[in-house]
Amino acid sequence: MPGALPDGEPVPEDGSLPSAALTAVGARGFGVYVHVPFCASRCGYCDFNTYTATELGGGAGRETYADSVLGELALARRVLADAPPRRVDTVFVGGGTPTLLSAEDLGRILAGIDATWGLAPDAEVTTEANPESVTPRSLAALRAAGYTRISLGMQSAAPGVLAVLDRRHRPGRAIAAAREAREAGFAHVNLDLIYGTPGERAEDFAESLAQVTAAGVDHVSAYALIVEDGTRLAARMRRGELPYPSDDVAADRYLAAEAALSAAGFGWYEVSNWATSPDARCRHNLLYWTGADWWGLGPGAHSHVGGVRWWNVKHPSTYAARLATGSSPGYGREVLTGDDARTEDVMLRLRLADGLPLATLDEPGRAAADRALADGLLDPHPYASGRAVLTLRGRLLADAVVRDLLP
């Protein structure tokens, strides 16, 4: 089941923000995230804020969900009335399984965002989808509604791995869906992979990579399996039914991904993400990684505007009920200090191929960066120009490098 929300100071009933947060909204870019919390079934590894039909109470159905999101969008417009963003650069609809909503409802939400703040002429508009939740017809309808990018949850090409993860799509369906998306006119298509699942063999992951690189997509995300407390997968491991993931195996899989993807013309631009060109990079995620502003719509969604981060109530029925009374669905918030912002900058920018400006680091951090350079974890060429960029070995140890650079 979904994990607990973090603590924080209360969000005002009207959702208002401190005046200091409104001085330069969208100066670094502005995005909108839309969370769709519905799934046909729960995958064994998932602790996202998602619900199946049997887990939902009254007032939380898919049929009225778009209206609730549009209600929060109206509240957002009021909150930012005196300092609206110049435009919306990116929209990302995630979940859950967004494509359990109709293409008409997803189109209504996008049209509402455009009417509220205006989509940039070149806005990137992404929806996530499970392979079995789309058809050529629905993909064409999404494209006609203005979606430009789709991210498909493939996870693996191996039937046994899909079974351990409780994925419902058949092997091969993700590749077929990617090709259908291209045929429908999507400019950008991503496939997600998970590696290190118990029972996954090296040849299983090699076959997944081979299928991905032959699919004609321009973006691949590959993540090591993380076992979250409270999930069915974690319970199976505690009972001894499955072994826990191996760090050594995960490292081997990452090296295999880098080798196969780079040979196929993909370049890494974030530790877990590869694209065939700069235009194929996920611009919405880059907004997150570079400290831009975004408004998160939907239950459990997080937002960040002007150094204020807040998060919504988690359950769809509570979310809908608050909006029905004109109240903010915000559950808690925090105002980031300068030190908080710098810490996040180090944590996120170091994971990017563009790297972290060394000027961001304090004196102990710069000394730690010098040590990382000597240990072969940072690339000497950008370092000489004032940027810390991870080497391949550094990417394998990215979390440890970040810890060393921060106090």
UniProtKB/TrEMBL annotation:
Q: Which UniProt keywords apply?
A: 4Fe-4S, Chaperone, Cytoplasm, Heme, Iron, Iron-sulfur, Metal-binding, S-adenosyl-L-methionine
Localization, per the record, is: Cytoplasm
Q: Which InterPro entries match?
A: Aldolase_TIM, Coproporphyrinogen-III_oxidase, Elp3/MiaA/NifB-like_rSAM, HemW-like, rSAM, rSAM_sf
Q: Report the superkingdom from the record.
A: Bacteria
Q: Which residues form the Radical SAM core domain?
A: 24-264
**Alphabetized SMART domains for the sequence:** Elp3 (SM00729)
**What does the record give as the function of this protein?**
Probably acts as a heme chaperone, transferring heme to an unknown acceptor. Binds one molecule of heme per monomer, possibly covalently. Binds 1 [4Fe-4S] cluster. The cluster is coordinated with 3 cysteines and an exchangeable S-adenosyl-L-methionine.
Q: Which PANTHER family match?
A: COPROPORPHYRINIGEN III OXIDASE (PTHR13932), RADICAL S-ADENOSYL METHIONINE DOMAIN-CONTAINING PROTEIN 1, MITOCHONDRIAL (PTHR13932:SF5)
Family affiliation: Belongs to the anaerobic coproporphyrinogen-III oxidase family. HemW subfamily.
Q: What is this protein called?
A: Heme chaperone HemW
Origin organism is: Plantactinospora siamensis
The opening ranks of the lineage are:
Bacteria, Bacillati, Actinomycetota, Actinomycetes, Micromonosporales
